[in-house]
Task: structure prediction
Amino acid sequence: MDSGNPILICIGLLISFLITVAYVYCEWLYGYWKRKNVPHEKATSIIYGSIRKIFKAEESQGIFFKDIYDSFPGEPFVGFYEFQRPSLLLRDPEVVKKVLTENFNSFHKNGVYTNEKEDSFFSRNPFVLAGAEWKEARSKLTQALTVNKLKFIPESVSKMYPSMKTFLDEANDNIEAYELGTNITSGMAASWSWGIEDSGFTKTKSYVREIAQKFVDVFIGTDSSMQLIHINPWFTPLFRPTIVSQENGFFNDLTAKSLKMLISTGNRNSPCILNSLRQTRLKSGQTDDDLMKNDAIKDLSGVVASFYLDAYETTARAMSFLFYTLAQYPDVQSRLREEVKKLPKEQITLEEVQKLPYLDMVFSEVLRMYPPATFLRKKCTQDCELSGVKVEAGSHIILPILALHMDGDIYADPEKFEPERFSEENKNDRHPYAYIPFGSGPRMCPGMRFAISLIKVITSFLLQDYEILPPKNEELKPIKPSVSGVLLVPDAPLKLHIAKLNK
Ligand code: HEM
Result:
């Protein structure tokens, strides 16, 4: 009997051996959560693990995480696989609290892509830094956003308001809520960053705003390839986002020019971030000549541009969700108008705006249903234990903000817009970590008070003069998240009609 070609037999045996080894390896790799006895979403592919829908750009991460969350009721957490890496999605607000506060040492790093060489701006943002660099960058920002500085918000809004009114009065057609939001934030953020007048309502778009929009589109908004890079930087060579770095020169020039202007006008009181940084450095013994040197300009420019880019998108999105919701709920809008009408628009103070209870409840409920950041991703940097499970360094932890906010066991009838959920009494009945639109703990959003104050003041102005209505000749559709985007981006423009009030 012919026993066959021994070389072919050897090759056959080798291939079978390799297939068996690969099979055993994959079983072992994707058996990680089973071995730990953690309820988990199975890997459906050896390439992308459990995240087929993200890999194929069928769902945004926020919605994908909500789906996993909803599929495991009653569990404190759920394991899954992002490519070959085991990740853990939290379901229990108490465990969320542990990750953000008590176990901060193990989870102090955000699990985001950054590349110093290609993205020298984004890689200097506190969000992507860790350790001493993070502390320093964060403290520069928080020192520039003190309560005393925020008191200037109503004054800044009243300076911008006439151009906003002209824009609204001249708009015969429907307005896109996000465009209105970015018109507001681009102008406000420019004046709060560099102290420059850069009205977002002029017909010609400013260059600084164009950069901000580019940053948003590539990094956090509409480009689905970035979702893959955030999950695993392996994908960087494929998509290679070079973005704000190309604009380094522009930001540095803008910072130098604005600083020169501040120095020449002798204006010590401007609330802008650049001036706050300047004053702190002058107090520490540096001179204006020191600050005008190249390295100092680069450093100042990094902090100021980060503020601009951070404030531009998140705040505009939140504002657009609020305006759209007010068009959906005219009764809520009327009640809110009655409340804000008590404030004299010419001399509104931040203290007064902050004391408006219904405005606070309405905006809190908007951020519950439409949190601009739908999830947080933390990287475990040292092994630790979470509710009896050992979490190993290198794994990623997902805090699914949107899923927690829409959990029917925490918020009855979660799809219903109900500001009363945020009355003092109702708020105290819930776990505080079941509501985290700005995160929490040492990394909590440093721009929170700026964003909330700005949105509340703008709304107080707007509702005294205008009515926010459904779009003309179009249906007011529910807000549905799009399939891409790291932040919550609606799948269609949120159109509105904003009409002058008949007083
Ligand atoms: C409605 C508007 C905003 C929302 C919903 C929002 C949301 C968030 C969230 C969820 C985080 C993560 C917090 C954590 O890890 O616990 C964050 C971080 C951050 N936000 Fe905001 N944000 C908003 C506005 C702003 C503004 C106006 C600024 C400008 C200063 C800003 C700057 C930052 C920075 C620098 C971080 C990183 C902080 C760190 O890691 O230490 N955000 N934001």
